[in-house]
Each structure stands twice: as structure tokens, then as C-alpha cells.
Specification:
alpha+beta, 3-stranded antiparallel sheet, 41% helix
């Protein structure tokens, strides 16, 4: 906290947190008067030192330091060029210090290396061994590391995607850091995250050769499959895959249709890869689209359901005709509002509301939907509001109600 009048910066936290915060503040202030001097006391297992070729320093820094600041914001790190010990600056290289968590430092380092290799092609190959071995096993799981893959020219653009969309999709769905440095793909994360990233990349390239199928997807904990009727595939996919791409971007998943070679049926299987919550959100979005095009596909014979599972699960509520449009709102605004307030995933598939989340999130979402629908018949009374952890009561003067509303 900064007390501007007294020019005092106060740090609160554990001893290590306070030490690091003080160190970062001193580094930031030192930049104003020249290069930051760093010694061995600066490394509290929170620092990565990267040598940047002199001809790439301006490119990496960006105009008024904008590129470095962008990387800092993306990866929650602190970065500045510095001098180490008592030695002067080298002519050929500048040292870039990166401070933060293992994951944050790694993401920032690889982003800088990607920029450097654009300006100085082949530089990564000279320091590859140092980069790949850095921070190995230094996370909570003890399996942190980096795997690599080499691309051909035509493969790189496909793996990158439009405006880097495919790379970001692989990164979010696998949980690993995915970055391309020259023609090299680097996957950093825990052992399971790296394995998923490599598998997802392999599946992407297999699609170029024709129809592909993920054998044993039923046993995997990172895959969900939705049966999409053949006449709904174009609607779900959208022009140039736009609709499917939007769902992938919204939920951070990887999605593609799969089938065995020469096997075409009345429906195709859409596989969704990613974390459980993200997969469920994407799955319900796809189900909603299919239900719009082919009513009854997922809702025929469905009943209301309230799960007793304390962990992640799905409840169902069935709406009447007039309730659905009210609970949806203009352009889905009310649904999004209910979803954001409850913390649950809330999606309408036909006249059925699917509510996914843990037991508290599902309970809140059901209550909020019930209160919302009750408002149409008059004012709503909420019992024991003072004991609720998700509600704050505020008194509004009678003459201000119209202004607030």
C-alpha cells in the first residue's frame, strides 16, 4: 500500500513475500536512474536471467517499453534489463531479469525468446540446452519440465493458426505453456500437461491426413464426446468453423469431429478436450445449438434433476414456454447474469436449464432462477438473508427506487 502524502510504501505478507516485494520495488525505482544492479541476494528462487542479443533489445523492449509491459501483464511477472555483480555491460548481450512464479517466468521467457528468434534467427539453438533444462522439477508436483517438437515450414502456420488462435487453444486446453520459437514448439508444465499438449498437437496434424479417431477416449479424464446429428453439423460448425471456434475461445477447449475412416452415419462424434468445467460448458453450448436446429435431440423425455453430489455435477430445471424467454433475457443477458452471480455454468437446451458446478454453485443458481421467475408475480422475499454468504442487503429510500431501477 502506498501512502502518497508520507511517501511511504508499506508491504504486508509473509517474511518471504515482504522480502520479494521490497526487492521488486527497489528494482523498479532503480530503473529511473540507469541500469539495475543485481547480485546473488536477488535470487529467492523467483528469478530467471536471460541473455538477449544487443540487436534484439529494442525489439524486445518495444516502444516506451510497451512489449515488456504486455508480457508482464499476461504472465504476472516483473521484467527489466540489468547488470550483474560489478561487471559492466557486455557489448553483444544484455541481461534480462524475469521475476515471478515458475510458470509465470517460463511463459514470459518463452515469449521473449520467440521475439528474439524473429529478430536474430537461430539464436534459440545456441542456448537450447539451458532453456529446456531450466527450473526442471521446481514446482509443487516435482514434474515441471519442458518438451520440444520441430516443425516444417508448412506445419508451423497450421500449428499457429489465425492470429495465434490454435496455439492459444492448445495452451488453454492442455494447461501447459505452448510457445513457438522459430520452427520449434516448446511445451512447459507438469508431466501430465505436457503429455496432453503433445497429444493434442498430434491429433491436429492427423486431421490434415483425413478422418481421425481417438481410440480409448472413454477412459480419458480430459475428453468428452457429443453425438451431433449429421444435418446439424454445418450449423454447429459455422462458416469456416467460426461457431465452433467461438466456443473453443470462450471455454478454452479443443474441439473436432472424429470418425473412423469410411465410416459415415446419421450422427458424428464431436470430441471436446480440456479441463472438466470447460468441457461441460462447451458441451452444453453445443447441445443448445443442436437443440435449436433439431428440437428434442437432447431433451426428449428429460426430467428435472437435483444432484446430491458435493463436487462437480449437473442439475436440470424445466421451464414453461413463457418462463424461458424471461430467464434468457435480451441476447442472453439474463442467463449470463445468473451464471456470473452464482458461479455455476448455466445453459438452456431447449426448455431445459442445465446447471453445472459444485453443490453450492448449483444451489445458488437454482435459487436465483426461482427468485427471478417469482418477480413476475410480485415482490420477492428472501428468508434469513443476514446469514447468507452470497447476499448483501441494502436499504433504498422510497423516493430513490425509480432512479436506482
Amino acid at each position: 500500500e502506498l501512502f502518497e502524502r508520507d511517501l511511504i510504501l508499506e508491504f504486508r505478507g509473509s517474511k518471504m513475500q515482504r522480502r520479494r516485494a521490497k526487492k521488486y520495488a527497489e528494482g523498479v525505482m532503480a530503473q529511473r536512474t540507469g541500469p539495475v544492479m543485481i547480485n546473488s541476494d536477488f535470487d529467492d528462487d523467483d528469478m530467471t536471467m536471460l541473455q538477449v542479443p544487443q540487436e534484439a533489445v529494442g525489439f524486445v523492449t518495444g516502444r516506451a517499453g510497451n512489449f515488456l509491459r504486455t508480457i508482464e501483464e499476461e504472465w504476472c511477472t516483473l521484467m527489466f534489463f540489468c547488470e550483474v555483480g560489478n561487471g559492466g555491460r557486455q557489448k553483444d548481450f544484455e541481461k534480462l531479469a524475469i521475476f515471478g512464479s515458475v510458470r509465470g517466468r517460463r511463459g514470459a521467457e518463452l515469449k521473449v525468446l520467440s521475439a528474439v528468434d524473429t529478430k536474430v534467427p537461430g539464436y534459440y539453438n545456441k542456448i537450447k540446452d539451458d532453456v529446456i533444462g531450466r527450473d526442471k522439477g521446481k514446482d509443487e508436483s516435482g514434474t515441471w519440465g519442458t518438451d520440444t517438437m520441430t516443425f516444417q515450414d508448412d506445419e508451423l502456420s497450421y500449428a499457429l493458426g489465425k492470429q495465434g488462435g490454435t496455439r492459444k487453444k492448445l495452451e488453454r486446453s492442455s494447461g501447459a505453456i505452448v510457445q513457438y520459437v522459430g520452427h520449434n514448439a516448446l511445451f512447459s508444465g507438469t508431466r501430465s500437461q505436457r503429455k496432453k499438449a503433445r497429444e493434442y498437437m498430434k491429433w491436429l496434424f492427423e486431421q490434415l491426413e483425413g478422418p481421425m479417431y481417438v481410440e480409448g477416449w472413454e477412459e480419458r479424464d480430459d475428453c468428452t464426446v457429443v453425438e451431433v446429428p449429421a444435418d446439424c453439423i454445418g450449423y454447429v460448425t459455422g462458416a469456416r468453423r467460426a461457431a465452433l471456434g467461438c466456443i473453443e475461445e470462450e471455454w478454452g477447449v479443443l474441439m473436432f469431429f472424429m470418425n473412423r475412416r469410411q465410416e459415415r452415419g446419421r450422427a458424428e462424434q464431436l470430441i471436446i478436450c480440456g479441463p472438466e468445467r470447460s468441457r461441460r460448458g462447451a458441451e452444453l453450448k453445443v447441445m443448445s445449438s443442436v437443440e435449436t436446429k433439431a428440437p428434442g435431440t437432447f431433451t426428449r423425455g428429460v426430467r428435472e434433476k437435483t444432484s446430491s453430489e458435493r463436487g462437480f455435477d449437473t442439475d436440470r430445471m424445466i421451464f414453461k414456454d413463457d418462463e424461458l424467454s424471461y430467464a434468457l433475457g435480451k441476447e442472453g443477458s439474463t442467463r449470463k447474469k445468473l451464471e456470473g452471480a452464482s458461479g455455476a455454468i448455466l445453459q438452456y437446451v431447449g426448455h431445459v436449464a442445465f446447471i453445472a458446478g459444485d453443490t453450492k454453485q448449483r444451489k445458488r443458481a437454482r435459487e436465483y432462477v426461482t427468485w427471478l421467475l417469482s418477480q413476475r408475480r410480485g415482490s420477492v422475499t428472501i428468508q434469513n438473508i443476514s446469514s447468507r454468504e452470497d447476499a448483501t442487503e441494502m436499504h433504498v429510500p422510497e423516493n430513490c427506487k425509480g432512479w436506482v431501477t
